[in-house]
Specification:
By secondary structure, this protein is mostly helical. The protein contains six helices and no strands. Helix 2 packs across helix 6. The relative contact order is 0.19. This is Cytochrome c family protein.
Length: 129
């Protein structure tokens, strides 16, 4: 019976690859540790070396009040979606030439998905959603 269940679960992952690459906000919280020296999220999150990231998705790049962005970032024309964020976070300087963000990037696809889930869990006011 155990072997049958194992085979059934394996078949599910093979037939529906989305199940194998699900987002995990808790794992994303751990990935965010790579970002937390420069960015904050949550209630009353301040701008630090980088802007706070509450309500990131749907926001226009370069638009957080009180943060001084590079001209390249302000003029990028980017509206943050899961796709634009994934492209950016893998190679910030390659995605926006002239950005002042000095970060090597997160290239692991699962870490990017998990980080996205974690950031999505914060509304614009920093409250959990």
């Amino acid at each position: 019976m155990t072997r049958l269940l194992t085979l059934a679960f394996a078949a599910m992952f093979l037939l529906d690859p989305r199940l194998a690459v699900a987002q995990d906000a808790q794992a994303g919280k751990r990935v965010f540790n790579k970002c937390s020296a420069c960015h904050a999220v949550g209630p009353n999150a301040p701008n630090k070396i980088g802007p706070q990231l509450n309500g990131l998705f749907g926001r226009t790049a370069g638009s957080v009040e009180g943060y001084t962005y590079s001209p390249a970032n302000k003029q990028s024309g980017i509206t943050w979606t899961e796709e634009t964020f994934a492209n950016y976070i893998k190679d910030p300087r390659g995605a926006i030439k002239g950005t002042k963000m000095v970060f090597a990037g997160i290239r692991n696809e699962q870490e990017v998905r998990d980080l996205t889930a974690y950031l999505r869990s914060f509304a614009a006011d920093g409250e959990p959603q």
